[in-house]
Amino acid sequence: MELQKTDNEFNSGLADNEYEPFRHRSVKKPNSTNGTIIHMLKGSLGTGILAMPSAFRNGGLVFGIIGTTLVGVIYAHCVYLLVSTSQKSCKKTRVPVLGFSETAQSVFRHGPIATQRFGNAAKAYIDYSLLIVSFFSVCVYLLFIATTLRDVINSELGIDWDTRVYILLTALPLIFVTQVRDLRYLVPFSALANMLILVTFGITLYYIFREPIDLSKREQFPEITALPSFFGTVVYAVEGIGVVLPVENKMKHPQHFLSCPGVLGIVLTFITVLYNVTGFFGYARYGPATRASVTLNLPSEEKLALSTQLLAALAILFTLGIYYYVPMDILWRKVKHRFPAERHNIAQIGIRFSILVAMTALALGVPELEPFIGLVGSICSATLGLLTPIVLDTVFRWSTPETFGVFRWRLVKNGILLAFGLFILVVGTYFSIKDIVDIYG
């Protein structure tokens, strides 16, 4: 509807530079700049931080810092490209705000002649990509909970149940959690989950730093074959592209998002430093034995460590409702017209349950957490977080070549970043699948 209005107004006689999208935004209860920083931190700072020591195990201490910083800078730049392209599209098409998929639709529709017919396809691509990322994240979290329960319960009871048993046990309460459709019932659980993650992270740091750390027997640089897993895990941990435009669109002062220093710079600097510290010292502490989630390395004989693992699993369980809500909202809006109104309730129940069954089946097929995190990071996070913003910026500028700068340096830069994103996508996916085949083949 927004873009239809845009087309009607596009030739209204108002010059592009006379329209200021920020002045036309009408947002109820807009977020302050500080509030936006908190929301952005919540979008990027999740359980991925617990996988950073595993990433450093693949990358080594020295290269781990270099690589994590590189990914942080590239991801920050890609977020900048996405937000700036969205804002320029708003200005060009005279629409106050555009979401992620609407930005893609607008860029392609008003871009070069060759791209204009792909506007709707670009919108659908973003929507379905966000669906896939969200549902794969549900699968990763399901594996995380099951793996944690396996380690704790098997250790405490002296049994040897397989991870698949705990996947099925975890899926049982999720049958009810994933049927919650009202966001207001999920928000308190999300707040509690955030608190539990912070407590988990704090106790984990206590175990990492409670004794002197010896760096002498730790790898400094990676094997070449370990690079894709390293980058895939880091991209998965850092990336939170899905929340960027929804958060920016609700700012009271949206001009503060890309300013210097602004929301983007503050958040990504903090995230990059925190992930470097966690990855470096987590691997330095546990070395080659570092697990896919560092909480699994904590001493199982200590009650505090066991409680930390259970707190992390509980936090993820509380978070799953929110992660399920967003993709289901997108999916339901796309398919509800296929069902008669009197069958909407049973259709929602069936779709929600079917997707949970599919994710559970995938987790049962690949119950190893580490290669799955690398796979999700390589396919989903690299595609949405890195490749898509670069493509949108390039298409937007294509009709006005002078915006690429002297010697088209922006186009060259985008080409290099595109190659990096494709490297993670193709090579990372290959090695993640290879690891999975090696484990189960």
TrEMBL record:
- The Amino acid transporter transmembrane domain covers 33-433
Q: Where in the cell is it found?
A: Membrane
Q: Which UniProt keywords apply?
A: Membrane, Transmembrane, Transmembrane helix
Q: State if Transmembrane helix is listed as a keyword.
A: yes
Q: Which GO terms describe its molecular function?
A: L-amino acid transmembrane transporter activity
**Domain of life from the UniProt record:** Eukaryota
InterPro entries according to UniProt: AA_transpt_TM
Q: How does it sit in the membrane?
A: Multi-pass membrane protein
GO cellular component: a single term: vacuolar membrane
Which ranges does the record mark as transmembrane? 61-83, 125-149, 161-178, 185-209, 229-247, 259-284, 304-326, 346-366, 372-396, 416-433
PANTHER family listed in its UniProt record: AMINO ACID TRANSPORTER (PTHR22950), GH04538P (PTHR22950:SF494)
Kindly provide the name given to this protein in its UniProt entry.
Amino acid transporter transmembrane domain-containing protein
User: What lineage is this protein's organism placed in?
Assistant: Eukaryota, Metazoa, Ecdysozoa, Arthropoda, Hexapoda
